[in-house]
Task: inverse folding
């Protein structure tokens, strides 16, 4: 249940950014979660709601965008979606794959007042 | 008003992990993060590894568990420095917890530091602690489907130790299938097949580890 630690880190960043911009109301925050990252979106949302309830951030919406796992073949350079976590090029069969997306765990932006 | 942030959510942990790493590097210390599910044999592996290497290398251990100090007591019996971290519920170690143990060690006196993470195939993979590389153990009784069920940990690891190979005759799967499934998720894995019970395969793993330290010195 590391979603609690992640929710805490997210809230720390949000508070820090709100302070920098001199705003006091958080309406929503938008984050990206890569498919390969070991995050359960429902758990993260649950933790975020619990940790903000009863605080000045209560009611803020957490919007999560799931980023598919994509790779590029080091041999034939083709880009493709990695399905079922099989890291193999669908064109040439090479196992030498660099992931180009799917490991994100980032905050994008937030709607504030 | 929309405020753009674009920041890794775990940036604070990553920063502490980098600071830890800088300190380890300064002391020419090789550090690995040992991860597996509960009961796969992390502490048994350390006991065996220490027995083989303790005359050649000066080893320290950080033991992470949710509760109890059983594992640290087992390691302490080998006469090497060990610090127990009790996470009190958290399912993983993070950079800050590791930093809090530093006062207990004299890094100048060590060649190798092992961080034994909390037994869990999911959460520890997300949190850097400042390690040079990650090592994971998969025991054969867990089943060969684990790499595709928990891909991040297999992706993040440099070494995979397939443990309890002495039990293969009693199972409905082959050692080859474990290796194949793991390499499908991460073809760059260095794989060792071992049994902490019989000692099979441990010399190859210990030789590899000795080489890592030698390269660093």
Result:
């Amino acid at each position: 249940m590391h979603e609690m630690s992640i929710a805490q880190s997210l809230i720390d960043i949000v508070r820090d950014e709100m302070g920098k911009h001199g705003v006091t109301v958080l309406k929503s925050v938008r984050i990206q979660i890569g498919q390969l990252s070991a995050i359960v979106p429902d758990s993260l949302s649950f933790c975020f709601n619990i940790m903000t309830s009863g605080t000045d951030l209560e009611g803020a919406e957490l919007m999560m965008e799931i980023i598919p796992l994509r790779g590029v073949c080091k041999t034939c350079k083709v880009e493709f979606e990695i399905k079922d976590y099989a890291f193999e090029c669908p064109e040439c069969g090479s196992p030498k794959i660099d992931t180009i997306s799917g490991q994100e765990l980032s905050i994008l932006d937030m709607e504030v007042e | 008003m929309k405020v753009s942030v674009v920041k890794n959510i775990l940036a604070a942990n990553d920063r502490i992990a980098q600071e830890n790493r800088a300190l380890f590097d300064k002391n020419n210390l090789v550090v690995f993060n040992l991860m597996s599910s509960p009961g796969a044999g992390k502490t048994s592996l350390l006991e065996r590894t220490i027995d083989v290497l303790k005359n050649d290398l000066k080893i320290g251990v950080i033991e992470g568990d949710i509760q109890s100090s059983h594992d640290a007591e087992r390691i302490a019996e080998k006469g090497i420095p060990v610090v127990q971290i009790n996470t009190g519920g958290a399912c993983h170690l993070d950079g800050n917890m590791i930093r809090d143990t530093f006062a207990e060690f004299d890094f100048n006196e060590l060649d190798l530091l092992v961080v034994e993470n909390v037994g869990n195939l999911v959460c520890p993979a997300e949190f850097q602690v400042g390690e040079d590389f990650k090592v994971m153990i998969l025991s054969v009784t867990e089943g060969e489907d684990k790499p595709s069920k928990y891909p991040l940990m297999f992706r993040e690891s440099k070494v995979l130790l397939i443990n309890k190979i002495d039990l293969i005759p009693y199972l409905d799967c082959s050692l080859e299938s474990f290796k194949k499934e793991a390499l499908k998720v991460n073809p760059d894995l260095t794989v060792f097949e071992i049994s902490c019970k019989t000692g099979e395969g441990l010399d190859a793993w210990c030789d590899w580890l000795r080489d890592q330290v030698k390269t660093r010195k």
The helical segments of chain B are 11-26, 42-53, 70-76, 95-99, 146-149, 151-156, 175-185, 202-216.
